[in-house]
Amino acid sequence: MNRLEEMLLELKDTSEFMVDLAYSSLIYDNEEIAEEVIFLAGTMEDLSQRIQEVVIEIGMSKPEEIARIVVLIRLQTSIMSIADAAKSIADVVLRGLGKHPVLAMSIKESETTISLARVAEDSVLRGKSFAELRLSSQCGMFVIAIKRDKEYIFGPGKTTKVEAGDILIAKGPEEGVPVFKGLADGTDKELSL
Amino acid sequence: MTDQEDYTSLDHIEMTVRELLTEMKDTSEVIVDLAYASLMYNSEDMAEKVNELEKEMNDLKFAIRFKVLMSSRTKQDAKQLSGLLQVASAADRISDAAAEIVNLLNLPLERRPFVSAMLYESDEKIRATRMSPKSSMIGYTIGKLGVEACTGCRIIALKNRNGWIYDPDDEIKIRAGDDIIVRGTEDGYKRLMEYANGNKSWEFPEVVEDQDGTTPQEEAASINEDEEEGGE
Predict the structure, then answer these.
(1) Does CATH number 3.30.70.1450 belong to domain B123-197?
(2) Which residues pair with A143 in a beta bridge?
(3) Which residues of B touch A99 (CB under 8 A)?
(4) For A161-176, what is each residue's pLDDT tens digit?
(5) In this predicted complex, what is the ipTM?
(6) Where along chain B do its domains lie?
C-alpha cells in the first residue's frame, strides 16, 4: 500500500469508529463520548488536508496517476460524509437533544446493539489483554471504549489489559450481550482461549 | 382527497417512530458494509442492492418525519423530537454516502485496482468463504447457529442456488456450497473458516435467558454517575 492509500484507509477506519462512538454517545446520552466524536472529526479534517497535499504533489509529478487519484478522492468524499453524519449525531447529544427515550431504545433494539458491563474482581477478563481475550470471537461483542476511573480509553488496542472496575462499552449482536455481561461480572468463567 | 387517503399513501406509515429509527440505523450500517464489499468483489449486483436500500431509506425518512411532526404537541416535544429527526437524517446521509461509494463501480476496473487491496486491510474485515459439505453448520439457520455471537462475524451476503441474498435474515439456512461474505475481525474470520471448512465442529451457543432487562438509562447511570452526583 502506498502512503496515500494508507492515509485513506485510516480515514475510513476512523469514520466507522466515529459512527460506533456516536451511537454509543446517544444510547447513554453521554457527552464525553460525544466530545470524542467531535475530536476525531477534527483529526479527520487534518488528515483530509494532508491527503489533498499529497494528491497535488503526485498530480504534479506523475500526471499518469491522475485517473487513479480521482477514485481516491471520490472515496474520500464519501468517507467524509459518513464522518460528518457521525458528528451530527454527537452534536444531538452535546446540544442536550438526545434525551428522547425512543433514541436509546431504537439503538438497543437494532441488529447491532450497544451494551456496557463493569468488570468484577473475579471476572475471567481481568488482567488479560484484548489480544488474549479475543472477545469479539467469543461472544460477538467488540469493545469500543473503556471507562476506567474517571477517564475514557477510546478504541482500546490489542495490548490494552482489562482491569477490575473497568466499564467496557461494546457493540455486537443482542445474543452476545448476556455472554458479555456474564464474562464481565464473573458469573461465566468459560473462555475458549 | 381526504386526510386519511393522503397519509396512508406514504410507505411505512404503519411503523412506530421507534421501529422506523431502528430500521434506519440497521440499514445505515449494513448499507456501508455492502457498499465496501461491492467494491472489494467488484459486484454490480451488490451495488444494485445498495441502491435499493438507499431508496428504501428515503421512504423511511419521509415516514419518520411525518410521524414525528404529527406527534409534536408542545415546545418540549419539539425540542426532543428535533434531536430524533437529526439522527434519522444522519442515518440517511450515511446511506447516501454508501450509494456514492458504489457509483465508483461505473469507473473502469483498471482505474481502481488498488481499492480491493486497500479495503482488505481495513479494521473491519470483509471476507468471503464457501461452505464445505463437511461443515457442521450445514442445514442450520443463521439464527439457530448464532453466527455473529459465536464468531464476531456477521453474514452480510450469501449466495445459494437461488442467487444472492443480502443482509440475510436469521431464518436463512446455510447449505453446502453456499458462498458467504462476512464482516468482522480477522480473528473471528479465522475462527469461522475452521467451522466453514469442517475442520472444527460448530459449538452451539448456550441459550442464555433473554437479557436481564436492563434499560439503556440504567446502564448509562454507571458511566454518567459523575454528572448525577454533581447535581445532587
Answers:
(1) yes
(2) A170
(3) 80, 83
(4) 999 999 999 999 999 9
(5) 0.94
(6) 3-111, 123-197
